[in-house]
Amino acid sequence: MKVLYVASEAVPFIKTGGLADVAFSLPKELRKTGVDIRVVIPKYSAIAEEFKKEMVLLKSIEVPVGWREQYCGIEYMEYEGVPYYFIDNEYYFKRDSGYGVYGYYDEAERFSFFNKSVLEMIKHIDFKPDIIHCNDWHTGMISPLLKAQYSEDKDYKNIKTIFTIHNLKYQGIFSSEILGDLLNLGSEYNHIEKLEFNGGVSFMKGGINYSDIVTTVSKSYAEEIQCEYYGEKLDGLLRKRGKDLFGIVNGIDYDIYNPEKDSFIYENYNIDSFDKKIKNKLKLQEAMNLPQREDVPLIGIVSRLDSMKGLDLVVHILDELLAKDVQMVVLGTGDQYFESIFRNFASRYPHKLSSNILFNTSLAHKIYASCDMFLMPSRFEPCGLSQLIALRYGTLPIVRETGGLNDTVKSFNEFTMEGNGFSFKNYNAHDMLFTINRALEYYKDRTVWYEIVKNAMNGDYSWKVSAQTYEELYLKLI
Ligand code: GLC
What atom of ligand 1 comes closest to residue 250's alpha carbon? Predict the structure, then answer.
């Protein structure tokens, strides 16, 4: 079985969020089961030189983008046994203005080119996929274009498509002029049953409407997005596609996130040598200029500082929380509002809160390993990877019951002694504070705490089961 996995980012080449982790670790796991899956992403200028040097140019072709004929280089390399194709065009992907990968004025054109190039590429390489697996809006026009422009071609006519939603909020909505101007599609596509969305056209809608199967990254999120509150105005379409919509929870890469082997952390440990985790805490406290104390509960946040992550709840109760005997470490970048508010709180509570407004992989690993608790009160969360990492490192998550958080964190039940963390339901700051207090109470009882930690560290958060589920879906299609 041959699968072409299309994404706008993939670790280790380029990453802005969890999609990049999935685009690396899921294909890697699927290859172990014998699926010939290959990944294709744009060749951004921000990809490190060491990788660019390894890429081989397979072919140069011309790709139509409306009335334009654009150069497209198809480059190739293998990484950890996974074949990667890179779509090269410096006009679209060499952007050094500091904005990073996304957010340019010509986003519609850049990703129309990418979608069209992925389809054109298939004619020119010796890999004819049975399935194209697309991810998020940046790949949303592949399925509609495949049906509209390639269905007569023998290389394409049997190709099936899967579209995975990692975050429904970002949809790629543009003026309907792009239909003719960029996609070579007729104005009949400007229709509510096709690509039309609120007076424009939507890449996300294209992916959902025209793919054979739609998946998202947890069972709860698959249900939530069929309701108005989480549906981002696509809940009607998602309900319509309900029987082809599947929720498959993400895993984490067990080679990268392993407290026994992780070279970023101060001291390696596992469930049997859990005592050693405390050394991480003391070293992190020292590095963050917090008082070095074993007994004080240390709460971590590693997050994009984005309103979807529920940080307004944290800000709302931060004075109350920091009045207690606790310490906190925050790591992340994002909205300026949250960046400055966390800096401000850190200057007011220098012995209790350390705010690190930056992106740093090594520090992130250290926080997962060193903290006692991990706070993630998201407003919505398609899957969430951080809580899975925290669980594997025995750092108990405190989460809101939404999306993937709901599916992976089970609140501790003192009667059955089941549960691997703490959770609350309503999007309410004091419900969250109540739950944090609950965790702080159990933290005082070392025996109970260790039981919850065991539940956390003994769980399976790997890709094993989910990769099998994807494989079963693939098999269903071909
Ligand atoms: C997006 C979602 C996140 C998910 C990730 C990978 O970043 O917001 O919840 O874990 O994609 O699927």
Answer: 12
Phi, psi of 461 (to 5 degrees): -115, 20
Q: Is residue 360 part of a domain?
A: yes
End-to-end CA distance of the chain: 9
pLDDT of residue 99: 62
Position in ligand 1 atom list of the atom nearest CA 221 = 9
Distance 377 CA to ligand 1 centre (A): 14
Indicate if 292 and 429 belong to the same structural domain.
yes
Does 266 map to a domain?
no
Average pLDDT for consecutive 10-residue bins of the chain (478 residues)? 98 94 97 97 96 98 97 98 98 81 95 98 97 98 98 94 98 98 98 97 98 98 98 98 98 96 98 98 98 98 96 98 98 96 98 96 98 98 98 98 98 98 98 98 98 98 96 96
Q: Is 17 in the pocket of ligand 1 (CB under 6 A)?
A: yes
Distances from the Cα of 268 to the Cαs of 238, 258, 300, 343, in angstroms? 44, 9, 19, 31
The CATH number of whichever domain residue 60 belongs to comes to 3.40.50.2000
Which pLDDT score is estimated for 97?
A: 60
Task: Determine the Cα–Cα distance for residues 260 and 36; give it in Å rounded to an integer.
Answer: 31
Range of the domain at 95: 2-251+464-477
Tell me the three state secondary structure of residue 287.
helix
Residue 87 and residue 120 share a domain: yes
DSSP code at position 185? -
Q: Are residues 342 and 196 in the same domain?
A: no
Mutate to test the pocket of ligand 1, among 164, 171, 217, 399 (most ligand atoms within 8 A of CB): 217
Measured from the CA of 308, which atom of ligand 1 is nearest? 8
Residue 166 Cβ contacting ligand 1 at under 6 Å: yes
Q: Give yes or no for residue 383 CB within 6 A of ligand 1.
A: yes
> How far, in Å, is the centroid of ligand 1 from the Cα of 407?
14
Q: What is the pLDDT of residue 100?
A: 77
